[in-house]
Amino acid sequence: MQHAILFDFNGVILDDEPIHLRLFNEGLAPLGYRIDAADYYDKYVGFDDTDGFAAAVADQGGNLDRAVLDRLIREKAVRYQALMDSRPPLFPGAAELIRRLAHRYPLAIASGALRGEIEGVLATVGLADSFQVIVAAEDVSRGKPDPEGYLIALAALRHGGQPALTADRCLVIEDTVAGVVAAKAAGMRCLAVAHTYPAERLHQADLVRPTIAAVNLEEIDGVLA
Questions:
Q1: How confident is the model at residue 17 (pLDDT cuts 50, 70, 90)?
Q2: What is the DSSP code (8-state) at residue 91?
Q3: For the chain, which residues make up each domain, given as ranges?
Q4: Domain covering 4-15+89-224 assigned CATH 3.30.450.40 in the classification
Q5: What is the CATH code of the structural domain delimited by 17-84?
């Protein structure tokens, strides 16, 4: 029986949400806007850059035209990459779990991050070969909580050698409410790690663990079974 594990990236593998908050605010400051930490983690943490910038400005009564929005995204990506060129801040236990899972299951990433950001980090930390599929912000028209990214990843896994794989045989590892909603809307099972939200906010997941370091293979096998 075919199974697969699909990972979110930011907040699950890479401990970079404080960096994203800082970079959002660096871009917004010249326009007169700011996101405070409470609002970021409550409202925007599951969004990709497009939805994050647009929603933050709209919630403060403003509007971004497409040219300005595209510039903000480009500039944020450049600043982010400069910070990631050194050792990226992975969550403790993430690399070890990924390497162990890669020997047992096909792995995919479905993230609101840009492809270059994801691939750059994975190459730097030696995990690029662990994932068969990467679905990034450029690959979807709707970000989480829409399930589009996870459904695209499922289709790519099928095409890449798992033709009998079905959504209910996929386990998503997420850290946000929007991500859990997306996984469940895709018909997939979900294990949530409480890196970003308290465990009680993630109650729609099939299993909630305090950190990715606390996840073990037996629990994953159990959720998939």
A1: confident
A2: P
A3: 4-15+89-224, 17-84
A4: no
A5: 1.10.150.240
Residues 6+ apart with CB under 8 A from 57: 28, 31, 33, 63, 64
| Beta strand spans in 8-141 (E) | 107-110, 133-135
The whole-angstrom separation of Cα 69 and Cα 129 is 33
217's torsion region: left (phi>0), alpha (psi -120 to 50) or beta?
Answer: alpha
Element (H, E) at 192: strand 189-193
User: What is the distance between the alpha carbons of residues 138 and 113, in angstroms, rounded to a whole number?
Assistant: 9
- Please say whether the beta carbons of 154 and 133 come within 8 A: no
User: Which residue is catalytic, options 8, 48, 49, 175?
Assistant: 8
φ, ψ at 193 (rounded to 5°): -110, 135
φ and ψ of 208, to 5 deg: -125, 130
Average pLDDT of span 167-190: 97
Decide if 85 is catalytic. no
Q: Distance between CA atoms of 199 and 63, rounded to whole angstroms?
A: 34
Q: In terms of pTM, does the model score above 0.70?
A: yes
Order the strands of the 107-110 sheet from edge to edge: 133-135, 107-110, 4-7, 170-174, 189-193, 207-209
